[in-house]
Amino acid sequence: MSESDDIDAAMNRAERTVPGGQAPDPFDARRLRDALGRFATGVTVVTACECDDHHGPVGMTVNSFASVSLDPPLILWSAARSSIRHAHFTQTPAFAVHVLRHDQEYLAHRFTRRGNGFSGLDYTQNEAGVPLLADVLARFECVTEARHDGGDHTIIIGRVTRFESTTDGAPLIFSGGQFGSFRPDQSS
Question: What is the pTM of this model?
């Protein structure tokens, strides 16, 4: 074994061993996903119109939603490039983000890859034709401000043009691959 082979072997051993366990394999997507899943997020459904000639309603369950700015009012969310709905959301001029209540897991499932989407679901449309779901914790109607490449996702920034919210109910939470709810401590 040459000196460079000895150095490579020692480096590989050092990279694999860290106090308290093993260093993460940068190419182990499942372990990375599990680690990211330790961060609890809220659950939203983002809606828009199809970008093709049909202009029908389209929706996607999303947990990558965040506030960006209050002045101007900007939010962001990320659309997976692997989604069959990706093109609709990256080409739309307007969309709405619906924050789901703890008892609306059924809505989250409707807008996943195998869900029923808008089939048989009541909704209204705003003046831009964006489908709006009723009775959610909060809804943000937006125009698309910017899109950015984000690896296997497209980061979409929206300017909030209208919003509404209620304090009735707790949010639907997603963590560790499971839905749940947040129950604030009532003891204080």
Answer: 0.81
Same domain, 168 and 78: yes
Residue 188 lies in a domain: no
Helix (H) or strand (E) holding 49: strand 44-49
DSSP-derived pairing of the beta strands 21-22 and 41-42: unpaired
Q: In what order do the strands lie in the sheet with 41-42?
A: 41-42, 172-175, 178-181
Shared domain check, 98 and 46: yes
Distance CA 89, CA 80 (A): 10
| Segment 20-50, tens digit of pLDDT | 445 555 668 888 888 888 888 999 999 999 8
DSSP secondary structure, 80-143, as one string: ETTSTTHHHHHH-SEEEEEEPBTT-HHHHHHTSTTS-TTTT---EE-TT--EE-SS-SEEEEEE
